[in-house]
Amino acid sequence: MTEKATFGAGCFWGVEETFRKVPGVTSTAVGYTGGTLENPTYEDVCTDRTGHAEVVQVEYDPARVSYDQLLDVFWANHDPTTLNRQGPDEGAQYRSAIFYHTPAQKAAAEASRDRQQKGGRFRRPIVTEIAPAAPFYRAEEYHQRYLEKRGQSSCHIG
């Protein structure tokens, strides 16, 4: 039986690529959550007026990978100290966010955030939003596995 985890860590193309490669992750989908507009499009979300975050929804086998391990991947692959920004991408849709599906995920996310803050890796305060999972709107098909389709490993090609 699989479980769901939902993470926002900047441009969803790279976030999906990272989680897709984790052993125990059975599927990924990019989309939008945490906003006010029903069935938003990419163009809607890019206006920075809908309140949605670009996210990856991860389905995983908890017998093969734990939620805590997924949280470790999340923290290791973005800067959780920049508000509404990752690299050159700016706007609330690029915010650092964990959308929890269960009370256990909420507790794990908060404990993980606190460990990260105390661990000394980040010099500035962590600004990651930890919020209940809201409706997930799957992004347009051309966004799914975008980097794999294009033969790229990163969103930001120099």
Overview of this protein structure:
With 158 residues, the protein is α+β, with helices and mostly antiparallel strands. It is built from 5 helices and 8 strands. The chain has a 6-stranded mixed sheet, covered by helices on one side. A two-stranded antiparallel ribbon has the order 4-5. β4 (85-86) and β5 (89-90) form a beta hairpin. α3 crosses α4 (103-118). The longest helix has 16 residues, at 103-118. 36% of the residues are buried.
Indicate the topology.
Layout: E1 3-9, H1 12-20, E2 25-33, H2 42-46, E3 53-60, H3 67-76, E4 85-86, E5 89-90, E6 96-100, H4 103-118, E7 129-132, E8 137-138, H5 146-150
Parallel strand pairs: 6-7
Antiparallel strand pairs: 1-3, 1-6, 2-3, 2-8, 4-5
Helix pairs in contact: 3-4
List the defining traits of the structure above:
158 residues; 6-stranded mixed β-sheet
Give a short synopsis of this structure:
The chain has 158 residues and is α+β, with helices and mostly antiparallel strands.
Low-confidence stretches: none
Rg, nearest Å: 15 Å
Order of helices and strands: EHEHEHEEEHEEH
Q: Could you describe the largest sheet, including whether it forms a barrel?
A: 6 strands, mixed
Question: Roughly how many Å apart are the termini?
Answer: 41 Å
Number of helical segments with 4 or more residues: 5
Share of residues in helices:
25-40%
Structural class label: alpha+beta
Strand content: 15-25%
What is the strand tally? Answer: 8
Strand order of the largest sheet: 7-6-1-3-2-8
Mean pLDDT: 94
> What spatial form do the alpha-carbon principal axes imply?
globular
